[in-house]
Design brief:
This protein is α/β, with parallel strands linked by helices. The chain contains 16 helices and 9 strands. The protein has a single domain, classed as TIM Barrel, CATH 3.20.20. The strands form 2 sheets. It has a 7-stranded parallel beta sheet with strand order 1-4-5-6-7-8-9. The chain has a two-stranded antiparallel ribbon with strand order 2-3. It binds coproporphyrinogen III.
């Protein structure tokens, strides 16, 4: 099957702030983007959703592209990255599981016991099952016209396993944790099988947004080419990392994330690609931050709001860049509070030094007013400048 992907003549990137921060540089101002920036708080998003189901949006490259561009267009000049419109649950779906959104995700046939693993394929043809993501990435890279880099993403194996075993979200994660304690080997099999699909999904997103032909054209203008390829970023979302005690997190959930980082880098290198910065958002895994900084293999660690910038920087040293971490509920507090809290956040991260990407500590929620969201972005622009002129 041939994908509708044109990797020649991709527009030149005009804003590389986030790429530089991800590599640990202290940038002149903090780059900013927001998890779920394409979402239900935007009237134009709701308008599209009136006519298309959630997965129809994910699976139709033109719609996914349009939704990705909506916040970039509306907040022109204020966002420093786009994130491809998709969902972490496309991976279990590609592995044959049924996913419904009504409106929270629900999986009517969850994996209940190790015998159920037989239902999951050992390998999948990622171009066939998830080619729509690559097409959406490619189209979006063209339509973005180099304004900002595009973030590709996937869910982390533990978070995906939790959905696959629980059959949806959960308050206690009783079933998913039962798996980890009762069937550690089967859990590892499940996590690895998911991780393999994640690797292919991330590599495919990078290749769809880069010049795959780099393999042959490397001899001339290598430096220029390498520069032109560094336009993307990858993020792995481990939204339920905080549900596990630190030792269990490190024993079971972290290894598949390490595996993903290693494999993605190895596969890109084998293709002659210089690689892209990678972010791990292990939400709330603050007790493991020091371990993540030295062992996870990611360039950036995402933070939720339950830690101060100073605490986080102290734990990670200067081994990684940080991303985060304003409370998503701050956006309901009015613009005076937004400005004051963003200033505190900026002061905290700037004082700690190193690369920093401003974001919320989790996704923006549906009732947020567009003007308050804008105020958040403007405040980051205002208060995160290093050495501002008096
Ligand atoms: O960040 C972006 O703008 C890109 C798009 C994106 C979505 N989901 C779109 C979406 C991303 C990066 C995700 C990741 C995702 N999906 C995560 C990890 C990040 C996190 O929030 O922890 C998780 C856990 C999911 C699973 C998921 N998808 C849930 C729990 C829900 C329902 C609850 C909710 O927050 O809406 C979804 C649906 C979903 N994914 C929506 C969007 C815009 C809303 C659905 C709708 O339009 O009706």
């Amino acid at each position: 099957m041939s994908l509708r992907v044109d990797t020649e003549n991709l527009p030149v990137l005009k804003n590389d702030l986030i790429i530089r921060a991800a590599r640990g540089e202290e940038t002149e101002r903090a780059p900013v983007w927001v998890m779920r920036q394409a979402g239900r708080y935007l009237p134009e998003f709701l308008e599209v959703r009136k006519h298309h189901s959630f997965f129809e949006c994910c699976k139709t490259p033109e719609i996914a592209c349009e939704l990705t561009l909506q916040p970039i267009r509306r907040f022109k000049g204020l966002l420093d990255a786009a994130i491809i419109f998709c969902d972490i649950l496309v991976v279990p779906e590609a592995m044959g599981m049924t996913i419904e959104m009504n409106p929270a995700p629900s999986l009517p046939n969850p994996i209940r016991t190790p015998e159920d693993l037989e239902r999951l394929p050992e390998r999948i043809d990622v171009n066939k099952k998830l080619g729509y993501v690559f097409e959406a990435v490619n189209l979006t890279r063209h339509k973005l016209n180099g304004e900002v880099p595009l973030i590709g993403f996937c869910g982390a194996p533990w978070t995906l396993m939790a959905y696959m075993v629980e059959g949806g979200g959960s308050k206690t994660y009783q079933k998913a944790k039962e798996w980890l304690y009762r069937w550690p080997e089967a859990s590892r099999t499940l996590l690895t099988r998911v991780a393999d699909v994640c690797v292919d999904l991330l590599v495919g997103q990078v290749l769809a947004g880069a010049q795959v032909s780099c393999r042959i054209s490397f001899c001339d203008g290598q430096a220029k080419l390498k520069k032109s390829l560094k336009k993307q970023l990858l993020q792995v979302f481990d939204s339920w990392a905080s549900e596990l005690p630190p030792a269990l997190y490190q024993e079971m959930a972290l290894p598949p994330c390490q595996y993903i980082a290693k494999q993605v880098r190895a596969k890109l290198q084998a293709l002659g690609h210089p690689g892209v910065p990678m972010t791990l958002f292990a939400k709330g895994a603050n007790a493991s931050l020091d371990v993540l900084a030295s062992e996870a293999g990611y360039d950036v660690l995402g933070l939720d709001s339950s830690i101060t910038p100073a605490q986080a920087r102290k734990l990670v040293g200067h081994k990684v860049a940080l991303q985060g971490n304003a409370d998503p509920m701050l956006l309901y507090g009015g613009q005076d509070a937004i400005k004051a809290e963003v200033k505190k956040m900026c002061d905290g991260f700037l004082a700690g030094g190193g690369g920093w990407i401003a974001n919320l500590g989790h996704g923006v929620t549906p009732q947020v007013q567009v003007d308050d969201f804008r105020c958040f972005l403007e405040s980051v622009h205002k208060y995160s400048r290093r050495n501002p002129e008096k």
